[in-house]
């Protein structure tokens, strides 16, 4: 079972992230990639729903932050695309399977392959060794990081988008399904940056009756020298504290960097902010991790 040792737990508490190499086998990674290939092959996204995904604040608010297709995706499986893959009419300029930025945000709930991984005995044992008593799954994503143009992810904290009171109740589990290298866009972290609170929040807002989003606060300008690269091999899992600052660079290599990531929240004594863009629904409340 994937239980943390005392030294690993201490390192996670100090740094706000922790690498666990070899968490999944090559066969387990291949099964997830094959399943995502089937979903992509069956993809049918109407032109008016084709959203270019971005982590730049102005682009976030202009594109996904104002689109029902994104804002109502918390309990669905939906497709989001890289910048520059559509013409002015919304038609693909590259093969559709090469255009996708990510698929989210409820693979864990609706797809049996990803549900099995998310609720696997290994994941449950890991969560228990972290002391999580009543964790629930709040979202999941498959990230492609396409060769040559897979977009950068700007420095951010996950709790900007998944805010709780008290803080410190959100945990990301990021699984490399292909090697993540300096060349194809591995994650970078600022060790220890999870102890300073949350500098920026994306919150729900309304323009009349239409749901939009806006940001409270602003992201600091982080010194690049503070970031530590975290290349990992296929099958590795990276634990990510909800408040640790992290990023990834654009993929300019000829190799993709597929990853599956999901977020847990310790629900015991925790309030999920009603201002978060993502909200549980009657049809899909946040499912308990332990089954």
UniProtKB/TrEMBL annotation:
<comment type="function">
    <text>2-oxoglutarate(2OG)-dependent dioxygenase that catalyzes the conversion of 2-oxoglutarate to succinate and CO(2) in an iron-dependent manner. However, does not couple 2OG turnover to the hydroxylation of acyl-coenzyme A derivatives, implying that it is not directly involved in phytanoyl coenzyme-A metabolism. Does not show detectable activity towards fatty acid CoA thioesters.</text>
</comment>
<keyword id="KW-0223">Dioxygenase</keyword>
<keyword id="KW-0479">Metal-binding</keyword>
<dbReference type="InterPro" id="IPR008775">
    <property type="entry name" value="Phytyl_CoA_dOase-like"/>
</dbReference>
<keyword id="KW-0560">Oxidoreductase</keyword>
<protein>
    <recommendedName>
        <fullName>Phytanoyl-CoA dioxygenase domain-containing protein 1</fullName>
    </recommendedName>
</protein>
<dbReference type="GO" id="GO:0046872">
    <property type="term" value="F:metal ion binding"/>
</dbReference>
<dbReference type="Pfam" id="PF05721">
    <property type="entry name" value="PhyH"/>
</dbReference>
<dbReference type="GO" id="GO:0051213">
    <property type="term" value="F:dioxygenase activity"/>
</dbReference>
<comment type="similarity">
    <text>Belongs to the PhyH family. PHYHD1 subfamily.</text>
</comment>
<keyword id="KW-0408">Iron</keyword>
